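Hello forum,

I keep getting stuck at the same step: I have a sequence, I want structure tokens, and every attempt I make locally crashes halfway through. Rather than fight my setup again tonight, could one of you with a working pipeline run this one for me? It's a single chain of 136 residues.
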Amino acid sequence: MDQALYVRFQGTVRHPRGHFPGVFVLANELAARGKLTEDQYRFWRSNNDWYDTHYTNPTDVDPDVYSPQVHPGAVAWFKSSAVDLIRRVDGYLGLLAAHGVECCRLESSNPGRIIYEDENQIVVAPPGEPGGVRPE
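Reply #2:
Ran it on my machine without issues. Output:
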């Protein structure tokens, strides 16, 4: 088996749009619904700010990358080389677990058709979209 080049952390329940949401979407939804404790909110806000500072938001480069009309179900994967970014996900996993939100870690050398790429991440077309590949 090839070495996994990409890593994704996602929920285990499909989102209403049909995909499995990533940990950032899940944490953002909890915050938006006012479900976080004061400490959890501080963690979420400061870590979201850290990620915003340290890596590119794909929608800043391509506003349509997550568009349900253009790329329905598109999802992001970290490159396995983005160790500092991946390491910080543990805090989100703990926050989500505290609210009973189950998550899993996926690793793949070919998670789908790449529609966006930068030094830290890719966004891929999901399985079922032309060119999409099912994760290993």
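The chain has a mean pLDDT of 90. If your local run keeps crashing, start a new thread with the error log.
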